[in-house]
Amino acid sequence: MSFKQYVTSRTFFLQLLAAFAILFVLGYLFMHWLTFTTDHGNEITVPDLRKLTVEKAEEKLDELDLDYVVLDSVDFVADYPKHSVVTQDPVPGAKVKEDRKIYLKINSSGFTQVRMPDLVEKTYRQAVPTLKALGLEEGKITYKPYLGKDMVLEMRFNGKKLKAGEKVWKSSKIDLVLGDGKVVFEEAEDTTATKTETPENGGE
């Protein structure tokens, strides 16, 4: 039988059909094995662990066959309980595989302290952003006679005058005493009187 007769024969078509069937079965078995080994279709939804203690978060993750790693603590966040989860990665609602590690950051036990910046003789517009950058808040604003309008004259916390470099708790409200841009003429008169009297005293 010639090659042309063979490829057009019934035997060739039956063998070709059998080869396609074998390839199809092998492909199906491979995809089934791949699905089984990668656990495809059995993804786990990451729960929301925020505001939970590490112990509670661990219990919740154990139920879902997930693991966790505590990365570190973050500066105290007032809206979250102490030692509770503040952030997590992956985020809540993400789809992950079994035994996936969830990375946690925990709220610290309390406020951290910062050193007061030197705001004296700076303008109000300069002082407020500086306070906020350090995690401090603007408190009560009062004025006193001083030629420089809105110039910071004093920094206070709970009525106590602060100096640059002193430590205060983050999120503290810092009161500022500003100049009102006015000159006290009485003081100017007293100063003039003093200067006038000095030569006379010196003459005696």
From TrEMBL:
InterPro entries: PASTA_dom
Spans through the membrane: 12-34
Database matches in Pfam families: PASTA
Origin: domain of life: Bacteria
Keyword Transmembrane helix set for record: yes
UniProt keyword list: Membrane, Transmembrane, Transmembrane helix
Stretches assigned to the PASTA domain: 41-108, 110-180
Listed name of the protein: PASTA domain-containing protein
Species: Flavobacterium silvaticum
